[in-house]
Write a structure and sequence with these properties.
single chain; 459 residues; mainly alpha; two-stranded antiparallel sheet; 2 strands; globular; disordered N terminus
């Protein structure tokens, strides 16, 4: 019954019922098998983009054949073109954002922050809360994957001798990064999609700030009682940012402002503002290249060793673009096209009737969050957006919250969790996370309750 939730139909393609047709069954089977391969990526090491791209092509070929057999010439072409347009907007937006993140990483913005943290000699409890709050406030700007990897590096550096701290610290960072991304249009792909669709205004997402904070703080408070009491030894790891790092940060803020202004004041797609922002960075890269630069890498001074390297470092903007997460971007293409095909076949109507008519909006939106712990939240949110049920702003904020934080319930429920399992060297596992799922679920329920009470006027 829940399988049709994955279907995302293209608007304007018409309402066709192929749900009991051979084309519908075959397409659904192809998608399920492809998504099974996506979910087993950790074990098979098959990149997640590959099966969904193949599945999307097969599904639309089947749709084209089925519709031509029913005299619907050109309908499949119109539907798939709409899906490609939706992907293009998301793709270009994310490409610009990823390029900025890569540029900041190359200019050592994140390394500098990590070096400052590990050199301060904080206790395990202090580091637990500092890394958690930093993850919560960094992920609304950077994606939760980058945030989790940055904070994970800090936790591993200072907690190598305490596996218990590393495990709890990683769980805390996953929850915090996912919660922080839920109250910002830039914090998660799902919030970005809701904003680009025009269902909520930019400022409305910040109504989720306190519910998202509750989602992070409740399990963190419980885990605090189980942290090691000792204080780790401070490490000497001072890293200086490279030339232009602060100006790139300012340009990124200007880029966000451009995207918001383009959408709010000119009623144009936000992606235009993001691409303008990419041009800002390209011109600044040209300036860095023409004026020349020398980077001095300082070694470990704590042991009396100082290593200076004075070779020019060229800032190549197209290298930053090339280092975007292409597997993720191509995965979005496959998902949008594949589930878009399933929606065109008519599964959307089934899912919409079951969830939003039979269950009710609140129950359906809470279920979306639970599903996102198992299935990637992107196709789930695509389904909801295209169902476009008649919901209040409070309900749209609720589904944005649950889709964003529901992935914290399991380690495989978000990119942050999967990445940290790979980074932890066996100290953070699926079952380590599962042991704390009840505490995380308590935070999930508490955040929903706080949202319904605090933002009651929006329902």
């Amino acid at each position: 019954m829940l399988l049709p939730i994955w279907a995302w139909a293209s608007e304007g393609a018409g309402n066709y019922d192929f749900t009991t047709h051979w084309a519908g069954f075959l397409s659904l089977g192809i998608f399920i098998f492809a998504y099974f391969l996506v979910m087993t990526e950790e074990f098979t090491h098959l990149r997640k983009s590959k099966p969904v791209i193949l599945a999307s092509g097969l599904i639309w070929a089947i749709i084209a054949i089925a519709m031509e057999q029913h005299g619907m010439d050109g309908v499949a072409e119109q539907a798939v073109r709409h899906n490609i347009l939706e992907f293009a907007e998301l793709f270009l937006f994310l490409l610009a954002a990823m390029t900025y993140i890569n540029a900041m990483e190359e200019r050592r913005v994140f390394d500098s922050l990590r070096g400052w943290l590990v050199s301060k000699g904080f206790s395990y409890k202090q580091l637990f809360w500092i890394t958690g709050f930093l993850a919560f406030f960094i992920s609304p700007v950077a994606d939760n994957l980058t945030t989790a990897l940055l904070m994970g590096a800090v936790i591993l550096a200072v907690g190598a001798s305490s596996p218990a701290f590393v495990s709890l610290g990683f769980i805390n960072v996953v929850v915090a990064a996912n919660a922080g991304g839920a109250f910002s249009p830039f914090g998660d792909i799902t919030t970005l999609m809701v904003w680009q669709k025009g269902l909520l205004q930019f400022h409305e997402f910040f109504d989720l700030f306190i519910p998202a904070m509750v989602n992070f703080v409740v399990p963190a408070l419980i885990m605090t009682f189980f942290l090691p009491k000792e204080k780790p030894e401070a490490l000497e790891d001072k890293i200086s940012m490279r030339r232009g790092a602060k100006r790139i940060l300012l340009l990124f803020i200007l880029t966000i402002a451009s995207a918001v202004s383009m959408h709010n004041f000119l009623h144009m797609p936000p992606v235009l503002g993001m691409m303008m922002g990419l041009a800002y960075l390209q011109f600044f890269a040209y300036y860095l290249k023409k004026t020349g630069e020398v980077s001095y890498d300082i070694g470990n001074q704590g042991e009396g060793v100082t290593h200076l390297e004075g070779k020019p470092i060229t800032f190549d903007i197209f290298n930053k673009i090339a280092r975007a997460e292409w597997d993720t971007l191509l995965f979005f293409f496959g998902v949008i096209l594949a589930v878009g095909g399933l929606g065109t076949l008519g599964y959307l109507a089934v899912a919409s009737d079951v969830m939003y008519n039979s269950w009710g909006a609140t129950e359906a939106n809470i279920t979306v969050g639970l599903l996102s712990a198992i299935v990637d939240n992107i196709p789930v949110m695509f389904a909801v957006l295209t169902m476009n049920p008649d919901m209040s702003d409070g309900q749209w904020l609720l589904v944005t919250l649950t889709a964003g934080v529901g992935g914290s319930l399991l380690s495989i429920g978000s990119a942050a969790g999967v990445a940290l399992m790979g980074q932890s060297k066996g100290l953070y596992t699926f079952f380590n996370h599962l042991k704390w799922t009840p505490a995380i679920a308590l935070g999930y329920v508490a955040s929903i309750w706080v949202h319904t009470q605090l933002n009651a006027a929006l329902f």
